[in-house]
């Protein structure tokens, strides 16, 4: 049976040593109570809940799945009871404002807890996870009355939330959506249409579900400029906040899917369902991006979750599994064979997972810092800089971390050999569950276009410079540190090349806009490797300083240095081929006539 142990030591390394979150929290108004002691205590309790309540349900959720009958959904055994304990523990309210029942802690602390919960049981984590985006959307765009009606029970956890975008005939191209919103004459609207792929759209874990729905008003313009956003509760709500009659919302069926079986992925039918406009008419897509950006950071954590899960289980297996002898002579002479961890190729797989898990955690928590600053800082310039940095990093974190998460999940399975293909070890489930992460909240290709087209080229490279300047300052500070040269020199080189490649693609795109699409995914992956190189260089510096100062955890810091060396020598060189392919030109993709794709 697979197991999960919260990686608290590495989380504390990132928080307290790498990112110095204590100073970060001290600089934010209202976050003064988030002392290292309090944060550590929250993480300890979150770890207990994840390990003891959620991890044992992970395989159960995969085996049982959700059951649909007459529009109602029954979640797997233990899911509802775990959710009740989650609510009782106050976890949904952790990072929300006190005036609506929240605990007032920074968003980044909630993101850390989401890592623990998601790694233990990703399918379960999606039920409260979608609520978080709904809450952020209501906080940013809802009226005072809407916030009073819907936010408090969502924050408390009595209700959950969803996002309803996709329809059968349109996936990412939301300009094609057909769901209608007809005015009722009393300030409400009658919402009619069908939405698909709605995670946690129907379940038995909460008394109400608040759907955030995209729809068109009767006089709406065509395309994305004619989309509005609505609140549509599963159960209508009286003026005093009590529940009224059932709304015209139902689950038509459950999707039969490759993984995340424990989460209800629903076809949702809206039949003159009563809804309420959020924000301005025909500006719904702008409002929805509040939800989407939240969800994309959450999906980046999914990549981290599957990487961490694969690493923990394949490492434990590699230490125990006996196969063959080491090429340099027996390492366990008293046993019939050596544990497979002695073999170089197994080390390659384990170190790849470790590099992506620990590097990805640093990236995710750094992004979480920017979320805090955007939300809470009183310094306007600091907020603007953090917002640009977060905007730049979000598509990288979402797409790169899910791509490497899937790679790590497959490497975890590979470490088990044939046993990895067998269900009882949990590795094949981890692969299946991880595959969706590269699809929802915008595929890798969509994230890549967002990064290169919208974030970088449309800003004339300013968003890229916001990050490369950070890297440049770090390298300049360590330019005379001889111990750091194995990291600083290649990091300086890739930081410079990053800008040069961007300029070449931009110049080519002025002649042919397909150049952006042809280069975008390679550009995003190159960017991801460059970003992680920065965090691994910083991690190496912290480890060197700790060892020089004398530490009781010598093995921990030596492992950091070994993994940093591995990353720079074995992973970062992948950028060499990406630099070639992103400049190969659109003609290599577009010259073949579509009629000539012959089978």
Number of helices: 19
Shape: globular
| Proportion of helical residues | 55-70%
Low-confidence stretches: none
Q: Which assembly state applies to the chains in this document?
A: single chain
Question: What is the average per-residue confidence, as pLDDT, rounded to a whole number?
Answer: 95
Distance between the first and last residues' Cα? 43 Å
Largest sheet: 7 strands, mixed
* Beta-strand content: 5-15%
Structural class: alpha+beta
Question: What does this protein structure show overall?
Answer:
With 599 residues, the protein is α+β, with helices and mostly antiparallel strands. The chain has a domain at 443-588. Helix content is 56%, strand content 11%. The protein is built from 19 helices and 11 strands. It has helices spanning 8-18, 21-26, 36-54, 58-64, 79-88, 107-120, 122-141, 144-156, 284-320, 344-376, 380-415, 427-435, 444-457, 462-477, 485-511, 514-549, 554-571, 574-581, 587-590, and strands spanning 67-69, 72-74, 159-164, 180-183, 189-199, 208-215, 228-233, 235-237, 243-246, 249-254, 265-278. The strands form 3 sheets. Strands 3, 4, 5, 6, 7, 10 and 11 form a 7-stranded mixed beta sheet that branches. Strands 1-2 form a two-stranded antiparallel ribbon. A two-stranded antiparallel ribbon has the order 8-9. A hairpin with a 2-residue loop joins strand 1 and strand 2. The mean pLDDT is 95.
